[in-house]
From TrEMBL:
Protein's UniProt keywords contain Transmembrane: yes
UniProt similarity note: Belongs to the Lgt family.
Identification of the protein by name: Phosphatidylglycerol--prolipoprotein diacylglyceryl transferase
EC numbers, comma separated: 2.5.1.145
NCBIfam families: lgt (TIGR00544)
Organism of derivation: Sphingobacterium oryzagri
Domain of life from the UniProt record: Bacteria
InterPro entries linked to this entry: Lgt
Molecular functions per Gene Ontology: phosphatidylglycerol-prolipoprotein diacylglyceryl transferase activity
Length: 274
């Protein structure tokens, strides 16, 4: 009882306001802020390196679609495969069949690892379409992705989702919409980690805007997915099947990204055509 009284209580309504069946959520605003801030920063990079705003506009469309589609499919396939394999339309439609009637749910369930795969796929398609080098684009895009990720995790905090394990630390948070247990604010841990990674990468770019191809991309993969791997130890598992696993799904999916990152960091330099 003492721990509960000393903890920070969080019970904010995730919906800011509703008009009929439409509700504006804090998560949606955070998601929008992630793209707006990323666009503004990427525009600075493109102007500095002689690229047009029109090219960035095309890239933004690819990234938006890649993020949304990848994150959605990632959640459905990595975390709730048994359900969605029998309800495939619900992967792409914002409603669920409940006892024969359709219930509007929105896209509840987005996985960051699926989003990462979606972004990489979108980058590959974009690079083919515009004849822009894939690694060159990736090296610049990852400078802003951590900040976007921080906004998304802030949205998770407003939704009282992706909660942490119980703790009696003084900054523990009671997510009253979930239970009355003081917990690690895992979403905020990740958001803070991502902001730190953003400042590290941004400072590196400002100091040396033209390192070997893939270097920024590699640093990003190691730092961000390394942080994700470590912080998973402070978070509740998202699905029941993870309870019997030594490392949860988020950690297992982080390992390949980190390995690719180390490869990009330590491989021999190679000149690329922008």
């Amino acid at each position: 009882m003492h721990a509960i009284l000393n903890a920070i209580h969080w019970n904010i309504d995730p919906v800011i306001f509703e008009i009929g069946s439409f509700g504006l959520r804090y998560y949606a605003l955070c998601f929008l802020a992630a793209f707006v801030v990323s666009y503004v920063l990427m525009l600075q990079i493109f102007k500095k390196e002689g690229k047009t705003q029109e090219l960035l506009d095309q890239l933004s469309i690819y990234i938006f679609l890649g993020t949304l589609i990848g994150a959605r499919l990632g959640h459905c396939l990595f975390y709730e495969f048994d359900y969605y394999i029998n309800h495939p339309l619900e992967m792409i439609l914002p409603f669920r069949n409940v006892n024969g009637s359709f219930e509007l749910t929105g896209f509840q369930g987005l996985a960051s690892h699926g989003g990462a795969i979606g972004i990489l796929t979108a980058l590959w398609l974009f690079s083919r379409k515009t004849k822009t080098n894939f690694i060159w684009i990736a090296d610049r895009l990852v400078l802003v992705v951590p900040l976007a990720g921080a906004f998304v995790r802030l949205g998770n905090f407003f939704n009282s989702e992706i909660i942490g394990l119980p703790t009696d630390l003084p900054w523990a948070v009671v997510f009253e919409k979930v239970d009355m247990v003081p917990r690690h604010p895992g979403q905020l841990y990740e958001a803070i980690a991502y902001v730190i990674i953003f400042f590290i990468l941004w400072a590196m770019y400002k100091k040396n805007a033209t390192p070997k191809a893939g270097y920024f991309f590699g640093i990003f993969l190691v730092l961000l997915f390394g942080a994700r791997f470590g912080l998973e130890f402070f978070k509740e598992n998202q699905e029941n099947f993870e309870e019997s696993m030594k490392f949860n799904m988020g950690q297992l999916l982080s390992i390949p990204f980190m390995l690719i990152g180390f490869f990009l960091i330590f491989r021999k330099p190679k000149e690329i055509k922008k």
